[in-house]
Prior knowledge:
2 domains; seven-stranded mixed β-sheet; 7 helices
Amino acid sequence: MERKSREGYEGTGPGAITPDGCAVELYSRLPVGNEPKVIAAAVPRGAHILELGSGVGRMTHALLEQGFRVTAVDESAPMLERVRGARTICGPIEELDLGETFDVVLLASFLVHAGDAEVRRGILRTCVRHVAEGGCVLIQREGEDYHENVPREREDPSGFTVRIASSEPVGDGINAVRVEYEFPDAVWTQTFRARPLTKEQFEGALEEAGLTVDRYLTQDRTWVRAVPAVWATAPAGR
């Protein structure tokens, strides 16, 4: 398959590579962590979740197993071909307008750190546009030291090494990040653009989009429950 990439985004390794440098085969191998448990603890049982940037469905499938309904959105058709049991929609997140709302809008995979600030604004507007009244937006942030102490690596218990090889400033507050995944039988790399956001900058970006933090869901503040600001400030009993 022809491999195309956006400026500043590149991937290498076996199999199809998406325009943002993600390898389909790699993401099919990566284990799901504790994210589904974090999500399940923050939303009503059986909620309908709009998952933005679902990829191959690592979290999708775990959420379906827990009884949630999921609509999975990704701009990569080869990624979505791996999703089972969920409604799938292929297209850019920042342009999505389904004309319907959901109990939960899920924005994981650090997508809020998009290097292009206009893309980030579009993604957050999509979140606001699709959250039902009384619902919430769940956002996964980078760790606040994500771009520090690089290079670094960790051994995953499932048998591969993930290495943040470099994170270098390229101007306008954006870093070029290179990540390497080493398995016994294959190696993949991904280079992408990310905009580090302090807690204050992150909350400011949400405010700009009309969202406000309801609460941080994890001690490291990487998972956030947000709601439209107009609901947070509405009088009780509205």
